[in-house]
Amino acid sequence: MSAARRFSKAERKGCNRILIVDDHPMIRERLREIICVEHGLEVCGEAEDRHSALTAVKNLQPDLAIVDLTLKNSHGLDLIKDLQAFTPEVAILVVSMHDESLHAERVIKAGARGYITKQEATRCIVEAIHTILSGEIYLSDLAASRVARKLSRHHAAGPTRSIDKLTDREIQVFELIGQGLSTREIAAQLHVGIPTVDTYRGRIKDKLDLKDANELLQFAIRWNQLGTERRT
Question: Which of 42, 106, 128, 227 suits 117 as a labelling partner, its CA being 20 to 30 A distant?
Fold first, then answer.
């Protein structure tokens, strides 16, 4: 079911309310266990996709939402933009398996206040939550350094095939190509038409200076592999 889950525990005064948005029940359960033992924090609900998350935010009024980038039938970046537009008072922490060197800056620009990988979550999610609720941004040292370098200077002319040239939607298509999905499968997952995906493919090839679909596929696969290697 794609419904928000409301917990029946009585609310505790002075507690910051946390909503967990992730499409894996075991991940939600583990995060809830870690958060609920921390004084001053309570998990007020869970959601697995964009629609149920928006419903939960409206009904449960959390102080902070923990959002994965890969959600059921949707993408977390779209949810972040929705929350920023309609409920900017809700702080957002992204907890994701995706490579932070690519995504951390993008989610901060979209309105999130922090980014940690799922590998880091057990160790530092409570610290990240408290940091964000205090009004600060939380990033790993590596991600923070990368963002700071970009903000401190104009974007120097880098490699021709810089992934930073791609828009958020193009990044989503690029990663799905690297996972081996067909154009039809990508269209179904992103809820767009096949011609739209073809347009994105063309733009990605142009921006990354790739000559054909095969070179695009190989480059996308390699990029995904490199991201996996950096996370392990």
Answer: 42
CATH homologous superfamily for the domain 5-150 = Response regulator (3.40.50.2300)
Q: Which fold has domain 163-231?
A: Arc Repressor Mutant, subunit A (1.10.10)
Start-end of CATH 3.40.50.2300 domains in the chain: 5-150
Cα distance between residue 2 and residue 51, in whole Å: 8
3-state secondary structure of 139: coil
pLDDT in 10s for each residue of the chain, 232 residues: 444 554 434 344 578 999 999 999 999 999 999 999 999 999 999 999 999 999 999 999 999 999 999 888 888 888 998 998 899 999 999 998 876 667 887 888 888 999 998 888 888 999 999 999 998 888 876 666 666 665 554 444 444 457 878 888 898 899 888 888 888 889 988 888 999 999 999 999 998 888 888 788 888 887 777 665 554 4
What pTM did the predictor assign?
A: 0.66
Write the single-letter amino acid at 12.
Answer: R
Range(s) of the chain covered by CATH 1.10.10.10: 163-231
